[in-house]
Amino acid sequence: MKRLLILLLTGLLIQLVVSCYPEGADNIEDYDVAITNYDKGADFSNFTTFSIPDTIVYFSNDNSGYVPIHAFDDAIIQTITENFEALGYEKIADPTAATPASDLPSFVVTVSAFSNVNYAYFVDNWYNNWNWYWGSWWGGPFSPYYPWYPVSVYTYQTGSVVIEMVSTTPRSDDKVNVIWTGIADGLLQGSNASILNRIETQINQCFAQSPYLNTISK
Questions:
Q1: Whole-number pLDDT of residue 130
Q2: CB within 8 A of 43, min separation 6: which ones?
C-alpha cells in the first residue's frame, strides 16, 4: 500500500508540474523531478553490501503504446551502482554463491520503470485575448462560447524510474522490507540520448538529496 501511494503521488506531482507551465516550459528538463522516501526507523549504518539485477522491469498502461527501450538498462543500472558504491556500499556480484548465508548482501536494489500517457485540453478564447466586447447588447464581454471557440486536445507521456532499497532481513509481518525509494520522473520526450541523460541526472539527484545513506565509515 505504501509503495502504491508513492507511485500515485508521483503521477499527481508530475501533472501538477506540467500545469505550472501553461505557456510551456523553457526547457523540457523543467518537467523533471527527483522524489525520495525512506524508513525513518532504519539504521543505514547496518547495511554494507548489496546486489542489483542486470535488467529493468517495465510497466505501462494498456493504451500508452510505449515500447520499453532495454538499451537504457545497462547505463541506468551502472549509474545506480556507482552511486551506492560511492557511498561506501560493496556490490556482491553473485549473491546466490554466497556461503555461508551470513555472506548474503545486506540489501537488494530493485529497479523498475513506469510509463503513462496523459490527456489534456485547452480552449483558445481568442476574442478575450483581444478584449473584444459587444457592448450592452450582450451585457458585457463577448461570451457565446458554443460552438465558436476551438478546443484542442493534446497528449504527453510521462515516465518514472523507481529504485528500491530492500533489506534482506525479513520483517516480522513477512512484508517486503523497503527501506529507501528513489524515483526519477519526467516527460518521455526528445531523443533517446536526451531522455537517458535526464534520467541519469535525476537518479544522481535522488542520492544527492538522501544524505542519510552516507553512514558508512570509510
A1: 45
A2: none
